[in-house]
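Internal ticket #5521
Category: modeling
Description: The requester needs a full-assembly model to guide mutagenesis choices. All entity lines are attached below as received. Residue total reported by intake: 724.
Assigned to: D.W.
Attached entities:
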Amino acid sequence: MSRRIPARIPGNWAPYILVSPFLILFAVFGLFPLLFSLWLAFQSWEPTSGLDAMQFVGLDNFVFALTDGWFWKSLYNTLWLAIVSGVPQHLVALPLAVFLHQGLKRWRGLVSGAYFLPYITSTVAIAMLFGSLFSTDYGLVNQALHALFGTENINWMRSPDAIKPAVAIIVFWRYLGFNLVLYLAALQTLPQDLYQAAKLDGASAWQQFLRITLPGLRPMILFGVTLSVIGGLQLFEEPFILTNGKGGADQQAMTVGIYLYRLAFDFSDFGGASALAWIMFGVIAALTWLTNKAFAERQVKA
Amino acid sequence: MSGLHSLHRRHLLAAALGGAVGLGEARELPPLTVAAFPLVDVIARDLLKSWAPSHPGLRTQVVSRQFDDHHTAMTTALSTSGHLPDVIALETSYLGRFALGSGLEDLSAPAFGAERFKDRFVPFAIDTARNRQGAIVAMPSDIGPGSLFYRHDLLAQAGLGEADLTRSWESYVEAGAQLKARTGAYLIGDVRLLKDIIVRAGTPPGEGQYFDNQGRVQVTSPRFVRAFELARQVRRQGLDARVEVWFNDWAEMLKRGRLATEMSGGWMAGQMANWVAPGTAGKWRVAQLPENTFCSYGGTYYAIPRRSAPEKKQLAWQLIQALTLDRQRQLDAFRSQDAFPALLAAQDDAFFDQPVPFLGGQHARVLWREAARRIPVVRLHKQQKFADEVVNAELDNVLEYGKPIPKALEDAQALLIHRANR
């Protein structure tokens, strides 16, 4: 039996056959949708008429998407959420990581694990949990605010002013631990002798942080910020579930991700949605490049 | 791996293949498949059961999914032409959407000849099933003639009569203010419902709610201004409870008599009697909507996908006829499921003249029948769903931020013009 296998399968095929499960799955679930959406971006398609109902429309979908009020509205929402939830993530995670690294020895793993927990929790569970925390009349958030500041109950989910901050808080809370773990890992790779030498030279803790820790962390900051930029621009699940897939009052929590989903599946405009997806691809690529550029330049100077 | 094992496996494989081939030889037709959602699936299953004696050897299958899942699955099936069922049950709003494309079979074609049945149905129901070329693409089964449900006891307590509610939309709101002052009950769940129905009331027959027949956006027309103004007035006077239909708060308010009126399809009587607010039996009455507005809330249709298996299409068509044209079957569904028949022949049964206990013995079915025959056709536009949302968002802006109504409507108009011809 085992002697017959090489006879059936030529030896030089073996590597391809062995990697084929991945390649086939990738082609079906990765490559095909990618190319199909590129194809769709240039078509006008009423989906229920079947695949043969597509019509080539050139750049119409792109022109439509770029002149659409809702695209700019959702792009603004996305950027707002990316900045308001993303910047504090790093501003808090970095000092926190330094504190955990230096201040806690035995409990470091447990504490950073606790911070990391939201990241691995199901989004649906999180959204439901926060849905009840942010409930207008019975939610803990409103009760705490009322007890502390005597504020009126805020209709978090249905008022256009409140929904964006609510989503930002959730995203911040969820991804803080992820960044914390990134920074902790990077801190552990910094050579201890640098700190010892600095101490001998009489450098204060603040000087050590500024001159050793920060420069040492720069590659990881670049990595973390890049992930936050990409993740922030692709934000979908949290606001989607919190707002029942609609984007909230006055679409104030409708990110580009949600809008392009809705454009396709709620408003049956697959061509427009595909064009939007590729525009977003461009935006994300550009911002990632900018992030790289911003950090790389300083690296040269340093 | 031992030789014995592989032998075993090969035998198994051969046996399985042989079995599959054997099955393939035995069957002539794959099963006749009906895709439906809850309640409709029961009706289809019952019918297919009764078909068994007269159709020996015919295999049938009812694929049932939850309401939203069903329509999503049908959208996918139609767009890829894969795994298409032979008969599709469709809710009105989705029918409108699907009829805009070419995924549904033209039942007016000679092979089916649906036109010969057109006078057997309530006019609006069959006209709603026509596509843009005027061909019938689905057959109506049940409809939801709209009416105004109101709490008789609360009205009496406030010293008001039915006419105070129905004379005009303005008097409806005025009566609401008195109701609130004297009984503390809210007039309506959410002003959005009021806005929608006033817009519907002002829409000329045969045109769309947001777009006219030439596809021009109508959002700044007087009917929208009036609807927005009345909605704002209701909100300012605190007459709406700000609860959404089907949510817990809404059901709770109905149970406790905190909502004095409800605008919905006739089937709402059954829903309230069975589970929403059974304790309020006898306290509700129905009237025609204010200013004699007639519209339909929901309804079910049956269609054949254009690209389903051609050899089963005639059988599917027979099934649809049995589902929609049989008087007794329609009446049974009305009795058991509150599915108000679109079939005219089913509307002259003595059942219609019987009092409805939940509505204090009112002869409500006669009122719904009257309404059903006067409902005008409303054309759906491709961008209907988007328009709904844009207009609702602008209403929120008016109500929450005091945005001036003309500005709000102009903004909505601009967004809709941009995609009117997408």
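Resolution: model delivered.
Comment from assignee: Chain B is about 50% helix and 10% strand.
Ticket closed.
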